[in-house]
């Protein structure tokens, strides 16, 4: 399921079983900011978990942001809500149905450029790569290739299976990937046409192609003129039992302004694939932190301790009572640190009216995915590849 230097999109686990329960996703009271910088700050983008920036088509623990997209070099712009914030992918992907501005398609090797992103649940995103002006919060506009998700574009290659056809089918209008890397593929796709991601199309026929770095889908946060060395995700804590919604912030830059100066955090360096090691029980797993995953996903220590939920919530954990655990995160270099967490009964929680939970989790074999619940009550720093700050040189997390 992991695709290394391309896309670590474990959000597919977040979508598996998220339809369980009948609680509302309404617009009632949300949690306070907990020291959150004001959204009007130039380098701050507001995030709502199942709140005002999300559509009604929302699953639990869905972090949403608003992104402004412009026709390149113009003031013809559109602000789009219901964009999933994903710290384990790279670049902006927006469904064609949500776009109301004209964007020119990128071309390479004399052909129009398209991309297929295949997810671990068997679905995919397919469509053209286009140039756009992108505005994040009140940061300056950046000109960047983005992925326009359009299942009707040309003829998708055979490997691009079960392409999502609409925002309603996917559960969001798009994805903002602000992970470690500047491009969604990097040197592999620049040197080989057999990369499985990028294609050029002649009529409706599309074939694999190599793509220069500058034409690949780019992480817009890494292109900001000042605040480009990383991001900070900030949420208040969420008590057991959950909240209807939660307000937080995505802060651009680390140590580039007074509102993003690191304070009282420990750095965890990652390997070249954007992973560290998590030891749970006596077993060590490759692991990462991901706002796009809406639970904590890891192998159950035993079926008696963490049993799987009954259908339709299979894949989630349903212990008879909320259970406390701890795991140790081991960086590539430096000292390890222990994380305490809880897992509750997903089926019970999802039948409440709340939609933001700190204690939901599910099964993941062979890896440890610290999803959105890890972020509640923490400032989590992510240092971009090739960029430095007082916390070190990317790749690293700090919390």
Structural notes for this entry:
The protein is mainly beta and 399 residues long. It folds into two domains: 33-223, Cathepsin D, subunit A, domain 1, CATH 2.40.70; 262-398, Cathepsin D, subunit A, domain 1, CATH 2.40.70. 6% of the residues lie in helices and 34% in strands. The protein contains five helices and 25 strands.
Defining traits:
5 helices; mainly beta; 6% helix; disordered N terminus; Cathepsin D, subunit A, domain 1; 399 residues
Short summary of the structure?
The chain has 399 residues and is mainly beta. Helices cover 6% and strands 34% of the residues.
- How are the strands ordered across the major sheet? 2-3-9-4-8-7
Corresponding CATH architecture of the largest domain? Beta Barrel
- Number of discrete domains: 2
Strand-and-helix sequence, N→C?
HEEEEEEEEHEHEEEEEEEEEEHEEHEEEE
The fold-level CATH name of the largest domain is Cathepsin D, subunit A, domain 1
Model regions low in confidence, pLDDT < 50 over at least 5 residues: 1-37
Number of strands: 25
Q: Helix coverage percent of residues?
A: under 10%
- Rg estimate, integer Å: 20 Å
Structural class, from helix and strand content?
A: mainly beta
Main sheet attributes: strand count, strand direction, barrel closure: 6 strands, mixed, barrel
CATH class bucket of the largest domain:
Mainly Beta
Describe how the helices and strands are arranged.
Blueprint: H1 11-15, E1 44-49, E2 63-70, E3 77-86, E4 90-95, E5 107-108, E6 111-118, E7 124-135, E8 142-149, H2 167-170, E9 174-178, H3 187-191, E10 198-202, E11 205-208, E12 230-234, E13 246-252, E14 267-269, E15 276-280, E16 283-289, E17 296-297, E18 323-330, E19 337-343, H4 346-350, E20 361-362, E21 367-370, H5 372-375, E22 379-383, E23 388-389, E24 392-393, E25 396-398
Parallel strand pairs: 3-9, 4-8, 16-21, 17-20
Antiparallel strand pairs: 1-2, 1-13, 2-3, 2-7, 4-9, 5-6, 6-7, 6-10, 7-8, 10-11, 12-13, 12-22, 14-25, 15-16, 15-18, 18-19, 22-25, 23-24
């Amino acid at each position: 399921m992991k695709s290394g230097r391309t896309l670590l999109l474990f959000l597919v686990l977040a979508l598996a079983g998220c339809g369980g329960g009948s609680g509302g996703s309404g617009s009632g009271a949300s949690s306070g900011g907990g020291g959150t910088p004001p959204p009007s700050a130039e380098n701050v983008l507001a995030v709502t978990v199942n709140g005002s920036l999300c559509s009604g088509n929302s699953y639990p623990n869905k972090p949403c942001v608003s992104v402004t997209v412009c026709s390149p070099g113009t003031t013809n712009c559109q602000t789009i809500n219901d964009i999933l914030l994903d710290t384990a992918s790279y670049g902006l992907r927006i469904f064609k149905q949500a776009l109301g501005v004209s964007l020119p398609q990128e071309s390479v090797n004399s052909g129009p450029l398209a991309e297929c992103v295949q997810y671990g649940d068997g679905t995919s995103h397919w469509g053209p790569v286009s140039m756009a002006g992108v505005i994040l919060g009140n940061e300056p506009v950046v000109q960047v290739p983005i992925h326009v998700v359009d299942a009707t574009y040309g003829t998708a290659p055979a490997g691009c299976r079960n392409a999502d056809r609409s925002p309603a089918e996917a559960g969001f209008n798009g994805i903002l990937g602000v992970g470690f890397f500047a491009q969604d593929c990097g040197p592999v796709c620049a040197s080989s046409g057999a990369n499985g991601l990028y294609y050029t199309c002649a009529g409706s026929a599309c074939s694999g192609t190599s793509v220069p770095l500058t034409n690949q889908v780019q992480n817009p946060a890494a292109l900001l003129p000042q605040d480009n060395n990383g991001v900070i995700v900030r949420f208040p804590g969420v008590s057991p039992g959950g909240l209807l919604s939660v307000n937080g912030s995505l802060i651009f830059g680390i140590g580039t302004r007074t509102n993003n100066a690191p304070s009282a955090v420990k750095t965890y360096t990652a390997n070249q694939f954007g992973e560290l090691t998590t030891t749970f029980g006596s077993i060590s797993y490759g692991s990462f932190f991901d706002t796009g995953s809406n639970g904590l996903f890891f192998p159950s220590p035993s079926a008696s301790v963490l049993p799987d939920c009954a259908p339709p919530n299979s894949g989630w954990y349903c212990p008879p009572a909320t259970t406390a655990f701890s795991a140790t995160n081991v960086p590539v270099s430096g000292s390890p640190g222990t994380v305490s967490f809880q897992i509750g009964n997903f089926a019970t929680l999802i039948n409440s009216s709340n939609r933001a939970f700190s204690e939901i989790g599910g099964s993941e074999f062979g890896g440890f995915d610290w999803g959105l619940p890890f972020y509640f009550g923490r400032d989590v720093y992510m240092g971009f590849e090739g960029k430095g700050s007082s916390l070190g040189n990317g790749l690293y997390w700090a919390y």
